[in-house]
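Q: Convert this sequence to structure tokens.
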Amino acid sequence: MSARVVRRSLAVGLPLALLSTVCVAGTALSQDRHGPADRPERTARVTGSAVLGDVPLAGFSNGLLPGSVSDDRGVMLGGIGSDIYPAGRKGEFWTVTDRGPNGQIKVDGKKRRTFAVPGFDPAIVRIRVAGERVEVLDSLPLTTRSGAAVTGLSNQASRDEAPYSHDALTPLAYNPNGLDTEGIVRAADGSFWLVDEYGPSLVHVSSRGRVLTRYVPEGLELKGADYRVVEALPGVLLHRKANRGFEGLALLPGGDLVLAVQSPLSLPDEDAGEESRNVRFLRFSTKKQQVTAEYAYRFDPVEVVDPGEDDTSELKISSVVALGRDSLLVEERTDRSARLHRVTLPRGAGILGSVWDDPATSPAYEELTDPSASGVRVLRKSLVVDLGTIEGVPGKIEGVAVTGRDTLALINDNDFGMTDGAEAFDANGRLVDSGVETSVTLLKLPRPLVGPTR
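A:
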């Protein structure tokens, strides 16, 4: 996490009713699919912006689950920008928080993961953009089968960062129920689907916030969770980079989901993952409750995504949204820049069940500098918009919703006003707020988000 105003982003949702409208008219923003050289002919523009006011985190949390937070350390509600999904009425959206106020502090030269408000429970939040204000209309706490808070705490000592208090001095208990939620979509039956970074996992949640099922990678062996856990995802995902699990989630017409891993897997080791530009998307059938395809996706060079950056490990996927039966809007980013691409989904299972799902394969998929030369079909893409070039777009955009044929709503993650380092809190343990606000930005594109479908 950083106090800098950065460009992160984008988890997106498009209602099925709008999909049918978008997919029948016009042409794509860019028909050329040659990658880094693509540029839209005109730029987008900001048409409005709204800010979430100060809401004490203890009051918000205890209003959902009484007694869950005894001391919020002066933290205000924020962090609701992990994703945004249209709620059906104009200006209204479903959003989701991440695991709560957290940061990193070095102790004896090693970084420790801190949880400033360990009782915080990730929540689904319904908001309304009213002029220059973001209003909270409703909130749903994420709960276990028995109705307890899932919390945002780390799950397993063998896989996740050890949790500590706000000052990184007191160890906290692991919680197998804990979720680091990111993407959100709402199904036709009113239930929600979320993705999580810990497992990484796909989480099915009732219309009132109760976790129904958590789908995790084969071999995770998560024990002690107070909800149903199913090992239905490829075991290769166990090699996800720490704090870089699933970040993007899209709902396709017909009910299938597309899940995006935020960063390349650490295969065959961490160094290879840091240097890789190859990430994985999964297609999940909600009817069959299983993965039906795995897609190979390749980042543009880091200097194309973020001019001046030379560290490939800064590349991330934070958002995917359905534009039709076979196309997505996909965001590539660093912490300073973000670009949206239109991506075409092919038929077939892709690399699912192939040698590239075997961690022993050498070279690993993540090591390939030219995947096509090794028979790997990489998803085709074309640039839609470079958010880093649009005046008025705030930093660290993590959620995008398609609101019309040529309009988007963007939401940023303000990290609950937290920064990394011991200076995040004063001598009394109260937050030194970063001053970054949660905001929703309305964007108009130069052309409709439309294109041919099968």
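Confidence is low (pLDDT under 50) at residues 1-37.
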